[in-house]
Queue: 2 jobs
Job 1
Amino acid sequence: MKALMQEFPLTLELVLERCRSVGTRTEVVSVGPAGPDRRTWSEVGERAVRIAGVLDALGVARGGRVATFAWNSHRHVELFLGVPAAGRVVHGVNVRLSDEEILYQVRHAADDVLFVDASLTGRLAPLRDGLAVRDVVVMEDGSPVHPAFARCPLYEDLLGSVCPPVRRFVPEPDDAAWICYTSGTTGHPKGVVASHQAAVLHSMSSMTVDSHAISRQDVLLAITPLFHVNAWGLPYTAAMAGTKLVLPGREVSGAALGALIESERVTVAAAVPTVWIDLLADGHDLSSLRRVLCGGAPAPRTLLDEVARRGLVFCKGWGMTEMLPSGTMQHLTPDTDLDSPGAAVTMVGRPTPGVQLRLVGAEGAELPWDGVAVGELQSRGPWVVRAYLDPEDDSNTSRFDRGWLRTGDLARIAPDGTVELVDRTKDVIKSGGEWISSLALEQALSAHPLVAEAAVVGVPDPYWGERPAAAIVATAGGTPPSTEELLAWLGTRVPKWWLPEQIVPVRCLPRTGVGKYDKKVLRTQLAGA
Amino acid sequence: MKALMQEFPLTLELVLERCRSVGTRTEVVSVGPAGPDRRTWSEVGERAVRIAGVLDALGVARGGRVATFAWNSHRHVELFLGVPAAGRVVHGVNVRLSDEEILYQVRHAADDVLFVDASLTGRLAPLRDGLAVRDVVVMEDGSPVHPAFARCPLYEDLLGSVCPPVRRFVPEPDDAAWICYTSGTTGHPKGVVASHQAAVLHSMSSMTVDSHAISRQDVLLAITPLFHVNAWGLPYTAAMAGTKLVLPGREVSGAALGALIESERVTVAAAVPTVWIDLLADGHDLSSLRRVLCGGAPAPRTLLDEVARRGLVFCKGWGMTEMLPSGTMQHLTPDTDLDSPGAAVTMVGRPTPGVQLRLVGAEGAELPWDGVAVGELQSRGPWVVRAYLDPEDDSNTSRFDRGWLRTGDLARIAPDGTVELVDRTKDVIKSGGEWISSLALEQALSAHPLVAEAAVVGVPDPYWGERPAAAIVATAGGTPPSTEELLAWLGTRVPKWWLPEQIVPVRCLPRTGVGKYDKKVLRTQLAGA
């Protein structure tokens, strides 16, 4: 027996319609070289609707790809809303990638056109001839346009020339809405394609109390760039909730962000741990802040302490591009005992409503949620992908398991569903048939008062197979502790056979484009040491 | 271009799986004649899964209808989860209906079997022979079973006899999950059929901060019966969020509910205004309470004052069975100025994310959201129906307008999306070509210190077409004010031509099965007065 519900496709048109209709009184504030730009969500929505006409004018077909090369601004948000709502696919290119990676992604995604911030035309100029797109549109942000792009059409001109009503391709729920490439720590970057329905449901889940809890009462600062999994989906969530959204542009120093929080009375902001560390060290008035959204990498204990000291809620999420990205969430309140096992850095909370998790052991058997068994975390859900963009990608076989995504994370799950990350499957060190958690070693090393950061990898060993090797960065202005001292420190904190073969002080750790430790590089460095 | 997301049908199996997996530590507490029953959400989920086997044993086919006649208990919640997850349809019959209405509904819904609380077998006994079902199953709640049902199978016996794994029909997102009949103030009750996907999305929306904000941190008391639009969908929401759920059984006096809030440390409860008035007048310790969920009828100002005095948030919703029921939500905090126009009793907040609204004028044109124009409120969304159960129902034409539900409410919408209810289209009084709001007159009369309640209807008038007539109930122990006094009172509060032709003191107002004023009955009474 079928129910008789209305036909109501879950697409980003719903989100666009929502911000236009209920967003007459809430602002989108964008910081740029020309100063802050303020407009209502309704205005942003009206402009996003006109992008359909711009794409028609540019001759982008239904399903065509539109690359962006931009900082977080209202223009970038307009593209993230308007391109999919117009039946095309938006692809945010990470502006911090190498020349080669940028050219690869634009070609691989088969982008038809590219929208670039004026302030980023200089970065793109050397690649101009290699960019495999038909048109480049320059978005005026108050910066001069590099001469290489001087003849390109301007975003405001195109938007202004469109006479609504515009011709539109109506998207379907399973149509592609956006493409984002994974950071590629395991090999070449892989294209993740999100559907409209997945994007809508993911946004709705981010409005739930136990997840990101984004509400109309909030003022949300989206520090995480749009080219990082659509700023964790938060611009769509803000559009749907009618939340005031603050977009920092390129200025993401602690001082710039602190000033923005102070002036816009931001209540919640999203960033990776390193950004939060800089931000909280800044002297601005952050008294409007209520919640810290943090993900992308494990948050050090010192950050948790500082957040608690300020009376804020720390929202610690786990996820990945393949999950758009929300997978789990834990809220640490100022009342949480940070020394309790449940609040450990490795604990990432329960699955976001809608996401299903399971643990799978080395032999492929499902493991119990007993807080003891360690297996690979696998996920299913309405916003989890089942394959990558490239049908030829080997990962389409290796990263999926009978309908589940293999997340590549080793974890335990407690009986109440709380997930504890043990390591990345590719980072875990297999030594004499046993597992050594690089993550646990890194945390134990970082806990030393003279160590700011630590990264641990496995290096080949003729007898054990692999043995751990560590690189450490000393705290600012300090001297790195000796290997003997660190081994003694670790001796009381990890099993004896986990002690690293080498502990090398370095000035800085190699990182990927999204700020994670680049363990491929480190492994080569330490194996050769 | 299609996205490559996982196949993940949104059905109540997802909710069932969720409460089983993450509900090992949160309770479902049911009050019954035998005292409180405590079990975890996981246990409730495990039992719900076994219902598939029970229905197989009873020979209920895929899509078959399962009626319930029960108070709010874990058994009733198990049926609301387990029956749809097993590919059948659950139909909660309102236990307060007349004999005739009960028999009509069970026959009209083509219910195959009926599950009845032992404590309600006495109520059903006179109807035993007329009940058009193949089997009746008795749910033991500690009360004696009426002899008319002495030979019926018992719920626990059936549940205990099922050996998992059970054979199962896997539901699809657009399969019917539950049937609920409207209260029928406009004619015979109409069957509303909810799909699985609609139920899941509605639950997710109830977890969002700006809607019901149900979280795992809450303790939720579901006072609204399951046979009233599935207790507003809150049991599904609680199952999904892993929220401790308290079910009061048949004892819903202010004192019984107060005691339950005190003992279970309830943080949020859902009920109609009259129940809240009784509850807050009770002397129990309600200090655990944080939010008051209220709907079904306009809340009187005295209730809002009392909620604010206690420092609670008043969540004022508007909706209807055809919307499962969530349509809009407004949160009044203790800081809200209840004298401000935005906090008026008639204001019901903004559309719940996912729901779209429009205003349509008498000529069928869409009206602006300017806070002035009055039109019929129409709605669309993933949890709004497009037709009633009965394909022959005239309402399938009259209540829908090109893909939108005609809600039958007259309203204004402010530019920021805030909805103000003006009246029911069927209750509004058409006098000399102008509209008089029965709702506004009722509120003005109720505001008089000696008036507890007031209901206003239109009565036929040879010259004006219709004129307003009022019935009032005096405050407890008080004398009703004279008609002259009330007309003087109204004179400063409503336009002169709105003044009622008659104001009749009555002992109590006629009400429908769900507690709304029965204006059909009142119209007859006052027209004949």
Job 2
Amino acid sequence: MEKKGILVVVSGFSGSGKGTVMKELISRYDNYALSISATTRSPREGEEHGREYFFKTREEFEKMIAEDALIEYACYVNNYYGTPRDYVEEQLGLGRDVILEIEIQGALQIKKRYPDTLLLFISPPDAQTLKNRLVGRGTESMDVIESRLSRAVEEAEGIENYDYFIINDDLNACVEEVNELIRGEHRRVSRSLELINEIRADLKKFQ
Amino acid sequence: MEKKGILVVVSGFSGSGKGTVMKELISRYDNYALSISATTRSPREGEEHGREYFFKTREEFEKMIAEDALIEYACYVNNYYGTPRDYVEEQLGLGRDVILEIEIQGALQIKKRYPDTLLLFISPPDAQTLKNRLVGRGTESMDVIESRLSRAVEEAEGIENYDYFIINDDLNACVEEVNELIRGEHRRVSRSLELINEIRADLKKFQ
């Protein structure tokens, strides 16, 4: 019997490096599936339908909302972003742990609907490093940096809703730590009741 | 600043091999401290005061109870067993994770008093293996084996009170898994609030 996979939501400050951590995690271990979001925004240079995003028209997206085909969605800067249900449920059923990289609002929608979702928050080791990483990209105006910083302040307010707070100081260590946390989660009593009940039933037979 | 250690209670079926797992864990990693119980029972051949147990008279033990010097205690077969508070709190304060190997009744006393205690339950992979391990020692009468089995049935009823259910199929894998679970527990949001609040305060300064 295949054990059901765990739904894992990963959030983190812009500049936390969470995207790189997740890509590396997926490439090292084959028990993970990375969910791909649907969006109504236009593809950017180099983005591919079905790889970065599923690109949808507004009509298509609203039809998905109406049919409850998304497990969470949100609107940013006049574009929809959401997580298609089919892929997530199919992969969980196959026993794979499904990873969603989403913002806190979506994370809370999912936790409400799937209470056994594991919520991870990834952070740089301190605020100065966070600021340096945001500035260090060298591609954004100070305005954009300031707006990211103020979003970081808001995001930081929601961390208590998460299960684990993980520092991304060293990429390799962080990837291993995330993998260990998810693997450990499979040992949680509430996720092992089937096995526990089998052992209980067997023990009674021996008496 | 030294991070506070985690209090870890390990229980498991007789024959689960939990004692061996803990000894191996302590010998591999130096961030753990194994708590030593106090008892009023007589030392057995080869047992040493301060190594296997702190051997106490009934009067001494009852004085410890009266002075609240034990974080849990119980009476089995007319002898007291308990966990001295001093050592546990001293080691936690030094940032070491303190491991107590105790029965479920004691585990629940401790969880009530220290709600952030991590409770681990160790089990053989299935009931047949458990029975084989109990019988396999070859040193006990069938009566003793039967009584252990029926205690196992009782213990199994309490597993929902624990956080993690860990299978001891392979000693090495089990030791590493326990280590990862405890290490992961340090990343729990509720145990990282000091760091989270520092980052929050720093972020606000940058705005």
